[in-house]
Amino acid sequence: MAVTILVLTVACGRANADAGLIVFGIDIGTASKSMAASGYKETGLAMLAMQKDTDLKFWSVGEGVLIAVYSTTNKKVLSLTYSLSDERPKATRKTFGLAVREFDPRNGEMKIAVPNKVPEDTVRQLADPQH
Q1: Rounded to whole angstroms, how far apart are CA atoms 40 and 119?
Q2: Which of 14, 67, 92, 106 is most open to solvent, judged by the fewest CB atoms within 10 Å of its CB?
Q3: Per-residue pLDDT tens for 87-116?
Q4: DSSP letters spanning 16-68
Q5: What is the distance, to the nearest Å, from the Cα of residue 42 to the centroid of all Cα atoms in its chain?
């Protein structure tokens, strides 16, 4: 399946030499430090991890929320999603989840995968505690 990568600037972080790219496989602690170094605040959503041995971290980014699913065994990021919602009341609100391949917190540049899916073999490989 062919995948197109869209590059969007969704926010303006603080340029900081201590911040690095947020990508699949990065340690969640490293991701958290990079986000904090660039001025992004952790937030919360009414959402739980769907898979065993995973957990979630959330950061406010621009008009949406960057969601990292990570392994609780090896602490590696398994997937990234950018969640956007419209302004309607919760009962009628539309929410969109975009598969993120990479986020640069220094400049707010986000690479979104279209079609909106992370390959299963990538998820399995990153979830493996041996990696």
Answers
A1: 28
A2: 92
A3: 888 788 788 888 999 999 988 899 988 765
A4: -TT---EETT-BHHHHHHHHHHTTPPB---S----STTEEEEEEEETTEEEEE
A5: 12
